[in-house]
Amino acid sequence: MENNLNFEETMKELEKVVQALENGELNLDESIKEFEKGMKLSKDASKYLEDAEKKITILVNKDNEIKEEDF
Q1: DSSP 18-68
Q2: Strand, coil or helix: what is 7?
Q3: What is the pLDDT of residue 54?
Q4: Collapsed DSSP state (helix, strand, coil) of residue 2
Q5: pLDDT value of residue 41
Q6: What's the angle, vertex CA 37, arms to CA 4 and CA 15, rounded to 5?
Q7: Chunked mean pLDDT (size 10), the chain, 71 residues
Q8: Domain extent listing, the chain
Q9: d(CA 43, CA 1)
Q10: Distance (Å, rounded) from C-alpha 17 to C-alpha 15?
Q11: Do residues 71 and 57 touch, judged by C-beta distance below 8 A?
């Protein structure tokens, strides 16, 4: 992720972009810039979720063996 925002901050910024686009007061160039920003933020948020999903694992002890399984 290229931004320095955490997941929650990324989502707040994405919400601001959506509100600005829905407001309808932006000209075409501003709308395109906001849309591009929103797409990047959306991609970053998805990456955060993918990374979190990979980290969620359960350690199961079977026959004195530790086995890592996806949650």
Answers
A1: HHHHHH--S-HHHHHHHHHHHHHHHHHHHHHHHHHHHH-EEEEEETTEEEE
A2: helix
A3: 77
A4: coil
A5: 97
A6: 85
A7: 84 97 95 97 95 68 60 59
A8: 7-70
A9: 9
A10: 5
A11: yes
